[in-house]
């Protein structure tokens, strides 16, 4: 039962349709409608809407603006790699391409305001114009004056225009140091389990009854609700696994109403989906193919993260090992590990107060190139000439992101690096060259 | 050309066009070539051989890539066809962007060829819309967008770039950033799909939309943020635009998960494609180019070892391996006048008759030929020695060339045969790969090798069915060359297994002994074998540090000025300042007193100027010398031989050892 939206400015039928399109978001939609007022009325300059992913922010805005036929421009901030694009899209949807083409190359905010005013005086607004900005959190990375200016654009352009910012984070993280006009805040809470159930049950399969599908959604939510509340993702998972759910039905083993048997059939399958296709270890295409295959063959498919083996040239392996040692051993201990006659030095003598925590917990430390090469020459078993290809291997390791360069690119003299591979990875690499890395690690002494 | 600038500076003058007289390849080849008269012929031989090697490797590469490329093409076709489905499940599914993760191995430069043929194949058979991008040209999102759009639309796209704006503000008031939007490829896209324009896949008559494929050549090098934003933007249009990604991955597929958070990777439908490992690739290349008698040009053990170790130890690059082969080929034909004989048997026999007198003299002086003559002389005292006279000499050479070709013809089948037998033995006494066995055989008599003896012992212990299977495979290899062996074995098939086994192995042993002798033992091997491993190593595996030390120790080596020539390895007084300073610093300990160093330097330089040792000025430090010294010292510091130290005032620390 959908609650009625009530507003004096719009026809009953339209509001009815809007309400049907926005299940479980009636409160927010009603709130927005009352904020927006009647079309010709002047509206509040800026509204800030926040809520998690897939909580219906864009959807509500789209439905409201489209169904009520209000003049609007929707801009996604990811796409606006420059402010020019943003201005252009706004002008384009309000005044047509004539206005957009008036913008100079790399326009400033005042260019935008000037052109807006110019056109707005020719075609004054009869209704409130809306600018919807999706992923507004990216506005924080643009020019410092853009966000404050947008918030009071109504004043600047002297037009009945409202900015609606949609974001996943709260307004407190937006507020500039210099202060700005405060928008109206509106929160979209997460859908509750019941609401998710209600929304998901709406897209029932045409050849099955609504109750049947609803019971399927119920089972699905029972498995996935604890890890995922993203509506989009849940809908995707529901579509992927529905055919498996219907399998016993098609074989004639169970009736539609026998929920328990259906549950027993689908539950292990969904658990498996949670570990594979939900994490994108297995693509949805592969998942669908798997369902058609026999149970036995399923084990053969390995997820993406199972492939971690990397083949490297012999010296690259040792360079990586040397880098790992340099990153995780304190430089003082190099003498102990790589000098032939280091004498007896026990770990306790070495220990400094702040080094009691494991270096592996602290993460890799930067090291200079000299130290890397010194360790490399002492761990590699044969005599290696310091050739150009040794050095070029270091930079290829950097491009492969197995090492990261810490110093600035411009610094040619004594560059610094960090090792970016995991313990497991380096152990696997060391095994292939018969190098016992554990013996050389200070943490495992 | 002059500059009217008052300030000091560095000016670049581009050479005028007329000076650029381009020399042909052949001129370069003949320049400084040994024995110029035959250089033309050698150049042609060399080039023919190289062309053949090149085309053969290209064919090989295509064959190797075919499988993975075919499955990729299938994937793209499948993706673009499933998109059209309108059943319930595909409607409810979130539309993901189909993504192929193509794992190609760590040697990134080798991937270029694969991507080249991939995008060609895609364009031929799947879609005209293919754009490939590299990380280095896409530092920011707008650059990535620009490249993608440029390549899809085939035109230039202007981006509002900070640098350009000043210059163009007046000339182009109409700015173009409208172009800079993903949806702009729609017009291009739709135009190509109109029925009027025929695509190369007319077999399907449904109006299927060809996908828009974007290839990221080196995924690891991309800025993760840029990639994430790009995927987010693309996913906004996936319903209208059939986009598809191909990720070129050098390390492992788990990089995708390291780079992309779940919110982004959930927009992709990733399928994995693993290419052939580069070691397998190399094995195939060696099999086709080295282990065959079709190419008369050969590498000796050391050169092959150098090329192989560069591959295995340094770069894993098949392309570089072939480059190395090319270098050896060029060097051989350039430096060895007798390489005119390094060609097909028929041509070689012809070329023998056309050898000049000096070339024949060269043959006489070849070490292998001298050995041959000595054995001949020992065997027959008078009769045969006549044959070595000038007229019959060419015939003898022809005979020897024939022998060499016969040796090669038999060598490779027997090598493979031995490898089939030994490669399945426990602990691989003669190597896992056929190239290892080849190296052993090239170096010395393989049958004298201890590992060979153990291998033979192990073979005698094999079970019947295993041995028979192995022998069967050997027979298959040997079939074309040695039919007679085949028959002798068949005839005795009924006799007891042990006798037969021993005989078979005996036979194999004899084969090895007669055919797998190292090439050095064969007369005229110098014609075909390139031996200068040092040259190859110097060219391919540069050692900057050794070069610097060589330059500092003996400047004559690089500067070729007679005044710098010295006998005993010492540095002449007139050497460049830095060489003198370097030589002097070698005599010091770990810490060097700068003043002592300066004085020593001044003395040496005064001697070079020819000042009278008794005069007052001798060895005195004047301003110019002081300045020169300081420059030399700072140059040494720049090269990393010394550094300043706080341990002692007026001292610098040495960073190298030895030399005292």
Automatic annotation (TrEMBL), chain A:
GO terms for biological process: DNA replication initiation. The keyword Transit peptide does not apply. Keywords: ATP-binding, DNA replication, Nucleotide-binding, Nucleus. GO terms for cellular component: nuclear origin of replication recognition complex. Residues 213-280 form the ORC5 lid domain. Its main location: nucleus. Signal peptide: none annotated. Gene3D superfamilies: P-loop containing nucleotide triphosphate hydrolases. One of its GO terms (molecular function) is DNA replication origin binding. Pfam families: AAA_16 (PF13191), ORC5_C (PF14630), ORC5_lid (PF21639). Belongs to the ORC5 family. Component of ORC, a complex composed of at least 6 subunits: ORC1, ORC2, ORC3, ORC4, ORC5 and ORC6. ORC is regulated in a cell-cycle dependent manner. It is sequentially assembled at the exit from anaphase of mitosis and disassembled as cells enter S phase. Component of the origin recognition complex (ORC) that binds origins of replication. DNA-binding is ATP-dependent. The specific DNA sequences that define origins of replication have not been identified yet. ORC is required to assemble the pre-replication complex necessary to initiate DNA replication. PANTHER family: ORIGIN RECOGNITION COMPLEX SUBUNIT 5. This is Origin recognition complex subunit 5. It comes from Sparus aurata (Gilthead sea bream).
TrEMBL record, chain B:
CDD domains: Orc3. GO terms for cellular component: DNA replication preinitiation complex; nuclear origin of replication recognition complex; nuclear pre-replicative complex. Residues 1-341 form the Origin recognition complex subunit 3 N-terminal domain. GO terms for biological process: DNA replication initiation. Residues 353-479 form the Origin recognition complex subunit 3 insertion domain. Coiled coil: none annotated. Keywords: DNA replication, DNA-binding, Nucleus, Phosphoprotein. Its main location: nucleus. It is found in: Nucleus. Component of ORC, a complex composed of at least 6 subunits: ORC1, ORC2, ORC3, ORC4, ORC5 and ORC6. ORC is regulated in a cell-cycle dependent manner. It is sequentially assembled at the exit from anaphase of mitosis and disassembled as cells enter S phase. Belongs to the ORC3 family. Component of the origin recognition complex (ORC) that binds origins of replication. DNA-binding is ATP-dependent. The specific DNA sequences that define origins of replication have not been identified yet. ORC is required to assemble the pre-replication complex necessary to initiate DNA replication. Binds histone H3 and H4 trimethylation marks H3K9me3, H3K27me3 and H4K20me3. This is Origin recognition complex subunit 3. It comes from Sparus aurata.
């Amino acid at each position: 039962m959908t609650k009625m939206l009530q507003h004096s400015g719009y026809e009953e039928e339209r509001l009815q349709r809007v309400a049907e399109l926005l299940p479980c978001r009636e409160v927010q939609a009603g709130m927005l409608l009352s904020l927006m007022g009647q079309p010709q009325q002047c509206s509040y300059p800026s509204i800030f809407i926040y809520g998690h992913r897939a909580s219906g922010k864009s959807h509500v805005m789209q439905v409201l603006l489209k169904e009520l036929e209000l003049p609007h421009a929707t801009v996604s901030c990811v796409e606006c790699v420059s402010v020019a694009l943003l201005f252009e899209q706004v002008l384009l949807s309000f005044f047509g391409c004539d206005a957009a083409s008036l913008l100079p190359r790399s326009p400033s905010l005042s260019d935008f305001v000037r052109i807006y005013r110019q056109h707005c005086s020719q075609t004054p607004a009869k209704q409130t114009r809306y600018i919807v900005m999706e992923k507004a959190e990216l506005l924080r990375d643009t020019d410092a004056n853009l966000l404050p200016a947008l918030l009071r654009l109504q004043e600047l352009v002297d037009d009945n225009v409202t900015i609606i910012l949609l974001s996943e984070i709260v307004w407190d993280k937006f507020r500039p140091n210099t202060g700005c006009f405060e928008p109206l805040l509106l929160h979209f809470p997460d859908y509750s389990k019941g609401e998710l159930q209600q929304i998901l049950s709406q897209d029932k399969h045409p050849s099955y009854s609504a109750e049947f599908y609803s019971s399927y959604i119920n089972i699905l939510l029972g498995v996935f609700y604890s890890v995922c509340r993203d509506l989009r993702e849940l809908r995707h998972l529901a579509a992927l696994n529905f055919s498996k759910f219907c399998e016993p039905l098609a074989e004639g083993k169970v009736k539609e109403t026998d929920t328990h048997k259906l549950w027993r059939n689908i539950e292990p399958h969904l658990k498996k989906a949670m570990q594979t296709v939900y994490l994108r270890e297995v693509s949805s295409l592969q998942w669908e193919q798997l369902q058609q295959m026999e149970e036995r063959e399923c084990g053969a498919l390995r997820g993406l993260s199972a492939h971690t083996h990397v083949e490297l040239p012999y010296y690259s392996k040792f360079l990586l090992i040397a880098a790992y040692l340099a990153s995780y051993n304190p430089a003082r201990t190099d003498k102990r590990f790589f000098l032939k006659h280091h004498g007896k030095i026990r770990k306790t003598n070495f220990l400094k107060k702040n080094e009691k925590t494991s270096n592996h917990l602290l993460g890799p430390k930067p090291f200079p190139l000299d130290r890397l090469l010194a360790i490399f020459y002492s761990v590699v078993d044969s005599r290696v000439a310091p050739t150009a290809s040794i050095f070029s291997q270091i930079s290829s390791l950097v491009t492969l992101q197995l090492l990261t360069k810490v110093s600035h690119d411009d610094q040619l003299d004594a560059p610094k690096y960090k090792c970016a591979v995991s313990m497991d990875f380096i152990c696997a690499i060391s095994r292939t060259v018969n190098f016992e890395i554990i013996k050389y690690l200070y943490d495992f002494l | 050309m002059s500059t009217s600038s008052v300030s000091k500076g560095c000016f670049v003058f581009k050479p005028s066009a007329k000076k650029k007289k381009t020399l042909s390849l052949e001129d370069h080849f003949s320049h400084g070539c040994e024995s110029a008269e035959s250089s033309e012929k050698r150049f042609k031989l060399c080039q023919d051989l190289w062309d053949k090697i090149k085309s053969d490797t290209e064919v090989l590469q295509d064959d190797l890539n075919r499988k993975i490329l075919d499955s990729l093409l299938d994937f793209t076709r499948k993706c673009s066809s499933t998109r059209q489905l309108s059943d319930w499940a595909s409607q409810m599914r979130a539309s993901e962007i189909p993504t192929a993760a193509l794992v190609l191995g760590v040697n990134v430069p080798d991937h270029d060829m694969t991507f080249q043929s991939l995008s060609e194949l895609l364009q031929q058979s799947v879609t005209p819309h293919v754009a490939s991008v590299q990380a280095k040209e896409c530092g920011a999102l707008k650059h990535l967008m620009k490249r993608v759009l440029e390549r899809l639309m085939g035109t230039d796209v202007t981006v509002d770039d900070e640098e350009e704006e000043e210059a163009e503000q007046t000339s182009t008031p109409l700015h173009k950033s409208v172009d800079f939007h993903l949806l702009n490829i729609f017009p291009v896209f739709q135009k190509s799909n109109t029925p009027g324009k025929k695509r190369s896949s007319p077999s399907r008559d449904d109006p299927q939309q060809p996908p828009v494929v974007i290839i990221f050549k080196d995924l690891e090098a991309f800025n993760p943020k840029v990639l994430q934003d790009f995927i987010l933007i693309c996913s906004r249009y996936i319903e209208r635009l059939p986009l598809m990604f191909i990720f070129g991955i050098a390390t492992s597929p788990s990089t995708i998960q390291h780079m992309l958070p779940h919110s982004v990777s959930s927009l992709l439908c990733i399928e994995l494609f693993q290419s052939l490992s580069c070691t397998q690739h190399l094995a195939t290349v060696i099999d086709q180019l080295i282990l065959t008698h079709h190419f008369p040009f050969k590498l000796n053990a050391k050169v092959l070892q150098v090329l192989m170790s560069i591959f295995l130890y340094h770069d894993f690059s098949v392309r570089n391996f072939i480059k190395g082969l090319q270098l050896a080929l060029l060097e051989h034909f350039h430096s060895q006048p007798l390489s005119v004989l390094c060609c097909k048997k028929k041509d070689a026999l012809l070329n023998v008759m056309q050898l000049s007198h000096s070339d024949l003299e060269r043959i006489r002086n070849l070490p292998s030929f001298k050995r041959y003559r000595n054995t001949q002389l020992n065997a027959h005292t008078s009769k045969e020695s006549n044959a070595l006279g000038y007229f019959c000499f060419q015939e003898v050479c022809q005979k020897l060339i024939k022998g060499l070709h016969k040796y090669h013809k038999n060598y490779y089948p027997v090598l493979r045969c031995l490898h089939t037998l030994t490669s399945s033995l426990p602990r691989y006494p003669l190597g896992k790969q056929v190239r290892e066995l080849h190296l052993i055989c090239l170096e010395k008599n393989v049958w004298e090798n201890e590992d060979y003896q153990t291998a033979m012992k192990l073979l005698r212990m094999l079970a019947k069915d295993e041995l028979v299977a192995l022998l069967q495979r050997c027979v298959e290899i040997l079939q074309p060359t040695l039919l007679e062996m085949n028959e002798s074995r068949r005839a005795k098939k009924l006799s007891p297994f042990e006798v037969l086994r021993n005989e078979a192995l005996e036979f194999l042993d004899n084969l090895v002994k007669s055919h797998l002798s190292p090439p050095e033992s064969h007369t005229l091997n110098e014609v075909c074998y390139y031996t200068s491993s040092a040259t190859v190593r110097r060219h391919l595996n540069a050692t900057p540090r050794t070069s610097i030390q060589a330059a500092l120790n003996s400047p004559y080596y690089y500067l070729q000025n007679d005044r710098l020539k010295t006998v005993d390895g010492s540095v002449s007084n007139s050497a460049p300042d830095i060489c003198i300073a370097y030589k002097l610093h070698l005599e010091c300990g770990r810490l060097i007193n700068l003043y002592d160093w300066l004085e020593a330097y001044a003395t040496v330089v005064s001697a070079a100027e020819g000042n009278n040792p008794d005069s007052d000025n001798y060895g005195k430090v004047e301003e110019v010398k002081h300045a020169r010294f300081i420059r030399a010292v700072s140059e040494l510091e720049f090269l990393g031989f010394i550094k300043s130290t706080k341990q002692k005032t007026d001292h610098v620390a040495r960073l190298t050892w030895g030399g005292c």
